[in-house]
Amino acid sequence: MVKAKEMVELSKSIANKIKDKQGDITEDETIRFKSYLLSMGIANPVTRETYGSGTQYHMQLAKQLAGMLQAPLEERGGIMSLTEVYCLVNRAQGMELLLPEDLVNACKMLEALKLPLRLRVFDSGVMVIELQSHKEEEMVASALETVSEKGSQTSEEFAKLVGMSVLLAKERLLLAEKMGHLC
Questions:
Q1: What is the DSSP track for 75-116?
Q2: Quaternary state and partners of this protein (predicted)?
Q3: How far from 119 is each of 8, 18, 57, 137, CA to CA, in Å?
């Protein structure tokens, strides 16, 4: 909590100096600020103040997301719900919280910017971020294998077995059903 208070004070001091166009941010302040940001997971956070509120902001945010979400996505099997992503990103952003629509707009740019992630919207409307390398066929084959071994299951049972959220488990089962592998 002490570090958080120091971070807030340092942020305010730097923000005020930038607003006043003094530009005398000491090297010590810069180093301390960057160290706090790194400990939260962000080297240089993308903010509306830095990039405005338009396309440039969303493009830079998309690039930041690609860098920060690669490892968590790999740990979670290559896919995360947008809700999970929103929570993870805002926890790392600290004081510079994202608006949900900014996250969605940035995610819509991931593929166009040729980043290793993409936004996917399932037929149900559920939005996820997945690695470009994440294959639908592999996802369905994995679900089919699990159901073949364990028998008929609810979304909740399947989620528990494979270690994912119920929402994503349900989407995986629905996709397998849509492709004619499950009924």
A1: HTTTEEEHHHHHHHHHHHHTTSPPPHHHHHHHHHTTTTTT-S
A2: Component of the endosomal sorting complex required for transport II (ESCRT-II).
A3: 33, 35, 18, 17
- Say whether pTM exceeds 0.85: no
The tens digit of pLDDT for each residue in 144-177 reads 888 888 888 888 988 888 888 889 889 888 888 8
Model confidence at 22, pLDDT cuts 50, 70, 90, reads: very low
CATH C-level class of 136-178? mainly alpha
Smallest Cα–Cα separation from 115: which of 161, 40, 163, 58?
58
Contact 86, 97 (CB under 8 A): no
Which residues 6+ apart lie within 8 Å of 106 measured at CB?
Answer: 58, 59, 61, 62, 65
DSSP string, 28-51: HHHHHHHHHHHHHT-SS---HHHH
At 183, is the secondary structure helix, strand, or coil? coil
How far, rounded to the nearest angstrom, does the alpha carbon of residue 171 sit from its chain's CA centroid? Answer: 19
The C-alpha atoms of residue 158 and residue 173 are separated, in whole angstroms, by 9
Pairing of strands 79-81, 127-131: antiparallel
pLDDT tens digits for range 90-108:
887 767 788 999 999 999 9
Q: Are 168 and 84 in contact (CB under 8 A)?
A: no
Q: Which helix (H) or strand (E) holds 130?
A: strand 127-131
Q: Which two tokens stand for residue 106?
A: 């940035």
